[in-house]
C-alpha cells in the first residue's frame, strides 16, 4: 500500500507566481541605442533604493530615472515613471525591485555596460552588499 507521500522537494520547477515578482525570462536587449544619451553619471551619494515615488510618495515599487535620478513608481502603482518619461523624454530607468533596466525608447528591458554602476549602487543600497560581479545573469536572482 503506497500512499502518495509528498516527500521532500526534488527541485521540481515550481509554478511561476502570478504577477508581482517580475522573474521574467526575457532576454534584455544589449544594443539599445538610447542608453548613451539617457544615462547620466551616478550622483556621488549613490542611490537610495528605499526612496519613495517623487510624485505620489508610494514606497513599494519604484524606479529611478538614470538621466535625472528622480524616483517614480511603476506602472503597477500609479505609473508615475511612465508619465515622467512621457513628459521629459528620459528613456532609461532602473527598477529598485529587481535591478532590471528598462528603456522606453526600445520598449524593452536592456543590458548595457553604461548602466552597471547604477545597478551596483542600487543593489548595494538595497541589500547592503555588492552586486554579484560574475554575470549579468545574476540580475535575475538579485531579489533572491
Ligand atoms: Zn507614484
Ligand atoms: Zn528623468
Ligand atoms: Zn533603447
TrEMBL record:
What keywords are annotated for this sequence in UniProt?
Chromatin regulator, Hydrolase, Metal-binding, Nucleus, Repeat, Repressor, Transcription, Transcription regulation, Zinc, Zinc-finger
Instruction: Choose any GO biological process term that the UniProt entry carries and state it.
Output: chromatin organization
Cellular component GO terms held in the UniProt record: nucleus
Needed co-factor(s): Zn(2+)
Extract the InterPro entries matched here: Znf_RING/FYVE/PHD, Znf_UBP
Domain UBP-type spans what residues? Answer: 30-129
**PANTHER family from the UniProt entry:** HISTONE DEACETYLASE-LIKE PROTEIN
> How is this protein named in the record?
UBP-type domain-containing protein
Per UniProt, what is the name of the gene that codes for the protein in this document?
Answer: RvY_10046-1
Amino acid at each position: 500500500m503506497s500512499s502518495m507521500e509528498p516527500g521532500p522537494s526534488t527541485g521540481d520547477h515550481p509554478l511561476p507566481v502570478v504577477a508581482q515578482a517580475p522573474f521574467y525570462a526575457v532576454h534584455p536587449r544589449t544594443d539599445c541605442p538610447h542608453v548613451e544619451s539617457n544615462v547620466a553619471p551616478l550622483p556621488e551619494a549613490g542611490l537610495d533604493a528605499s526612496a519613495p515615488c517623487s510624485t505620489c510618495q508610494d514606497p513599494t515599487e519604484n524606479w529611478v530615472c538614470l538621466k535625472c535620478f528622480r524616483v517614480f513608481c511603476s506602472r503597477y502603482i500609479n505609473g508615475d515613471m511612465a508619465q515622467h518619461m512621457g513628459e521629459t523624454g528620459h528613456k532609461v530607468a532602473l527598477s529598485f525591485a529587481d535591478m532590471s533596466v528598462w528603456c522606453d525608447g526600445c520598449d524593452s528591458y536592456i543590458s548595457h555596460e553604461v548602466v552597471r554602476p547604477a545597478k551596483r549602487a542600487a543593489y548595494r543600497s538595497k541589500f547592503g552588499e555588492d552586486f554579484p560581479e560574475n554575470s549579468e545573469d545574476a540580475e535575475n536572482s538579485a531579489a533572491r
